[in-house]
């Protein structure tokens, strides 16, 4: 069984006019976006576009970068950030690096506005609603900001979860955030959070969960249906299965580092029929496999994928996932082929 883990936070970008960029999520075209091309994040007033860019790997030395982080990787991450600004993409942040990149960009172009979102980790030693506010203020300090647009609970608390939800509401009322969301929440937890916030007049904007062709648990456990019913946007992390769906890896060329223990040659061999069909469909549209699988997710409706970008080239590639649509037959065929692959498991906290 393969295990997916996510540890990044959502932020995004959309372009108001050529000389002024305001960040909210992203659609990814290198053109100016209109208000009509955006969607509201859940029931909040925060407007986002249809695709984000993930930066879980930014600064990471435990999972993505073979336990090292150097100037070359720093420049690549900065390139991904700049490309996401220039192409009006979204991003997931490593707070300190994102704060640094924003500051550097503003020094070059003071007109740039970046709306950031980050997460609260329900660690065992964090108790009650005040812990949410304390952690948020620490995040704001690292980011060098006075507020963020979206604040999410990274996973449900083992205990004291109601206090965390109260903390989200407090953050809105204190003006520290514009919208709030959750992450890795089950259907039951999602509904509880929604109702508790609703009583305070605060909409639950999003639920960020693991969702891809290879990991479709949100379709099976009621999370996707509940998000659609309640008007909560589903933000899909690991939408390209940490690179496994891009066609980059083969049984003879598996990923290195911790991912190599997940996406083994045996796993990748069973994945080949799906990857071959993804490639064939992509050739018909003049699209890459990455663009095909991201388009598949956007076709599910009420879903904002946030694929990870390590460099500018990857960020630019994501723009090609939008502006076209797979047919219903292709959508269903890919889901059927994916069902024949080895099952994967997700971040264990989604079962809390």
UniProtKB/TrEMBL annotation:
Concerning CDD domains, the annotation shows: AKR_AtPLR-like
Query: What GO annotations for molecular function exist for this entry?
Result: oxidoreductase activity
Q: Which domain of life is it from?
A: Eukaryota
- Keyword annotations: NADP, Oxidoreductase
Gene3D superfamilies xrefs? NADP-dependent oxidoreductase domain
Pfam families according to UniProt? Aldo_ket_red
An example Gene Ontology CC term for this record: cytoplasm
Q: Which InterPro entries match?
A: AKR, Aldo-Keto_reductase, Aldo/ket_reductase_CS, NAD(P)_OxRdtase_dom_sf, NADP_OxRdtase_dom
NADP-dependent oxidoreductase domain: which residues?
50-337
Q: Would the keyword ATP-binding turn up in this protein's UniProt record?
A: no
Q: What is this protein called?
A: NADP-dependent oxidoreductase domain-containing protein
């Amino acid at each position: 069984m393969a295990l997916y883990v996510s540890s990044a936070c959502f932020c995004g970008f959309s372009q108001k006019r050529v000389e002024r960029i305001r960040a909210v999520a992203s659609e990814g075209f290198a053109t100016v976006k209109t208000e009509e091309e955006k969607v509201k994040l859940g029931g909040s007033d925060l407007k986002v576009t249809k695709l984000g860019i993930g930066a879980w790997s930014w600064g990471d030395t435990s999972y993505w970068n073979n336990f090292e982080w150097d100037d070359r990787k720093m420049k690549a991450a900065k390139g991904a950030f700049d490309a996401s600004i220039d192409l009006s993409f979204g991003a997931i942040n490593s707070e300190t690096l994102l704060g640094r990149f924003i500051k550097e960009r503003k020094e070059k172009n003071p007109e740039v506005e970046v709306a950031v979102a980050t997460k609260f980790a329900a660690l065992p030693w964090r108790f009650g609603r005040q812990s949410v506010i304390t952690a948020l203020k620490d995040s704001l300090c690292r980011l060098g900001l006075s507020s963020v647009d979206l604040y999410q609970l990274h996973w449900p608390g083992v205990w004291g979860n109601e206090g965390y939800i109260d903390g989200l509401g407090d953050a809105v009322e204190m003006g520290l955030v514009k919208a709030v969301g959750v992450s890795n929440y089950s259907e039951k937890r999602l509904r509880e959070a929604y109702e508790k916030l609703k009583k305070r007049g605060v909409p639950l904007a999003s639920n960020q969960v693991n969702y891809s062709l290879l990991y479709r648990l949100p379709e099976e456990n009621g999370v996707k249906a509940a998000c659609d019913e309640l008007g909560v946007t589903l933000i899909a992390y690991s939408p390209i299965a940490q690179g496994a769906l891009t066609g980059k890896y083969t049984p003879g060329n598996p990923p290195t580092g911790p991912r190599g223990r997940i996406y083994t040659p045996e796993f990748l061999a069973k994945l080949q029929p799906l990857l071959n069909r993804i490639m064939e469909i992509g050739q018909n549209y003049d699209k890459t496999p990455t663009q095909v699988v991201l388009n598949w997710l956007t076709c599910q409706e009420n879903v904002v994928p946030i694929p990870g970008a390590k460099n500018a080239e990857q960020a630019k590639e994501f723009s090609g996932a939008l502006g076209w649509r797979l047919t219903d037959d292709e959508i269903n065929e890919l889901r059927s082929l994916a069902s024949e692959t080895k099952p994967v498991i997700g971040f264990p906290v989604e079962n809390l």
